[in-house]
Amino acid sequence: MDDHMDYKIKDIKLAGQGERQLEWAEAHMPTLMLIRRELGMSKPLKGLRIAMLLHVTKETGVLARTMAAAGGEVYLGGSNPLSTQDDIAAALASEGMHVFAWKGQTDKDYNDNIKTILGSKPDLIMDDGADLHAATHQKYKNLRIMGGTEETTTGITRLKAMEEEKVLRYPVIAVNNAYTKYLFDNRYGTGQSGVDGVIRATNIMISGKVAVVAGYGWVGRGVAMRLHGMGARVIVTEVNPFRALEAIMDGYGVMTMADAAKEGDLFITATGDMNVVTYDNMLRMKDGAIMANVGHFDVEIDMRTLNKKAKRTKQIRDHLKEFELSNGRKVYVLAEGRLVNLGAAEGHPSEVMDLSFANQALAAVNIVKNGKSLGNKVYNVPEETDERIAKLKLKSMGISIDALTKEQKEYMTQWRYGT
Ligand code: ADE
């Protein structure tokens, strides 16, 4: 461990490798790079400390560099014990950022790092999952925070609960709610990286398997779509009747988890809620069934009961653990039931994080510029910002789209002409 005054990371000697990875990511994140060039000139974050608790990947590195180019002093921690890419942490630390993250952190490390990051008395909070926001509302209440951003569905659910209870102490922009975030990152990002995580951890053949996807929100849809595309027969479990109907009409089977448990070869949870796969469900599973999670926290598969009740466990290889159940059958869990796409793979590809992190960067600047006029509420990314990001992305892809003619615009605002 490299424990330095300004950073705590695995090994600063990994910086060279991290630099090359960052270069690769930057080449695939044209929207964020354009925003970096703009912010690099206007320096809206000058003199501000930015506390970021995100998955420390090469894409987050590109965002952190953007915040630094905008004039901010970056304090960065990892939002998940398994997701930090140590070479990226090293590269960013070697550039002068205050990085407190390494792969394989314990819960205590995690809380210590939050303490250090918040000890910098940050002005802005950029979070993924709302643990940093929760900390500024519980243990570290004396900080004067201008406002913050939040990346993910789970984080926004928590922040909305804080708003509802009237305890939220500063404005937060819900990056996840932008079209240019959830339609792409949640669906195509997790769709690809979730399946990538399963394959890297196991190298199983997806084709011919029965895959059970728990939850048919944007993440579940993306995962189901990609598994189906690779030849799996997909079963969806849901609690929401509209989503269940959508899953049926998209061509999947829908049933309860208790029934699906008997059918599945592979289970992927994507609900954001706890105990979606219970130990009772596991007892009904086939010998050899594999379970993985792509929801933010490691609560969706009941690991606590599984760890308690399993007769024997065996680590087969990295991120693949065997559990012998009380009925003698063996089931497998990937990446400890944590986000498999970030634990066993590298998270979403740069191209899609380009959109999410363009939103993060502009949301942070928005808070700095307009925070004083905002209440202590959860705000969406302004529509103009969302649309601008979509247009910039299309432009970077060399794609032009049509524009409404004057006549078409007028037609859309009238009600007199029908058939
Ligand atoms: N969340 C999902 N994929 C990610 C990535 N590549 N970087 C940061 N956060 C992520």
Which blocks of ≥5 consecutive residues have pLDDT under 50?
A: none
Q: Any ligands, ions or cofactors bound here, and which? A: adenine
CATH superfamily of the largest domain: Adenosylhomocysteinase-like
Terminal CA distance: 73 Å
Tally the helices: what do you get? 17
Strand content: 15-25%
Give me the Rg, rounded. Answer: 22 Å
What's the CATH C level of the largest domain?
A: Alpha Beta
Q: What's the main sheet like?
A: 8 strands, mixed
Architecture of the largest domain in CATH?
Answer: 3-Layer(aba) Sandwich
Count up the domains.
2
By secondary-structure content and strand pairing, the structural class works out as alpha/beta
The oligomeric status of these chains comes to single chain
Kindly report the spatial arrangement of strands forming the biggest sheet.
11-10-9-12-13-16-15-14
Helical content stands at 40-55%
Shape: globular
User: Overall pLDDT, averaged?
Assistant: 97
Secondary structure: elements and pairs:
Blueprint: E1 2-3, E2 8-9, H1 15-27, H2 30-42, E3 49-54, H3 58-69, E4 73-78, H4 86-94, E5 98-100, H5 107-118, E6 124-127, H6 131-137, E7 147-150, H7 153-164, E8 172-174, H8 179-202, E9 210-214, H9 218-229, E10 233-237, H10 241-249, E11 253-254, H11 257-263, E12 266-269, H12 279-284, E13 290-293, H13 303-309, E14 312-317, E15 320-324, E16 330-334, H14 340-343, H15 350-370, E17 378-380, H16 383-396, H17 406-412
Parallel strand pairs: 3-4, 3-6, 4-5, 6-7, 7-8, 8-17, 9-10, 9-12, 10-11, 12-13, 13-16
Antiparallel strand pairs: 1-2, 14-15, 15-16
Helix pairs in contact: 1-3, 1-4, 2-3, 2-15, 3-15, 8-9, 8-15, 15-16
Bound molecules: adenine.
